[in-house]
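I hope you will forgive my troubling you with a question about protein structure. The record follows directly beneath this note:
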Amino acid sequence: MAALAGMFLAALGVVASMPSCFGCSSNTCGQAGISITAPTEQIIDVLVSDVACNGVTPSCEAEGEAGTCTKYLVLPTAAGNCHIEVDLQKGTQFSTDIEVAAGPSGCPGFYPTIAGDSNIEVP
C-alpha cells in the first residue's frame, strides 16, 4: 500500500509540473507595422497619411555608412488604409497603400492585412 501511495504522489508531481494548457501554442506576434527599404537607391524621406497612419512619423531602424537611413519603420495607430510615399535620391517617388488591422489575438499594434506588405522593398 505504501508503494502505491508513493507512485500516486510521484504522478501528482508530474501532473503539477505540466503546463496548464495542453492545446495552447505560444503566439509569436512578429514585428507590428511596415518596414521600408530601398536596396538600389538612397531614401531621402518617407511620408505617411490616411486613416491608419494619420499623425505617424516613420522612424529610422537602420543607418548606412554615410549616416543615412536605409530602413524605416511605420507603426500605424489605427485600422484602415495607410498611404506611404517614399522620396528617393534621384528625384523619383514611390507610393503605395497598405491596409492594416489590429494584431492577432494577444498581439499589440497594427499589422498589414496581407503578410507580404509588412516588408516593402522600394524598386
In short: Strands lie at 34-37, 43-49, 59-63, 69-74, 80-88, 93-102, 110-112, 119-121. The chain has one helix and eight strands. The CA atoms of residues 79 and 101 lie 4 Å apart. The radius of gyration is 24 Å.
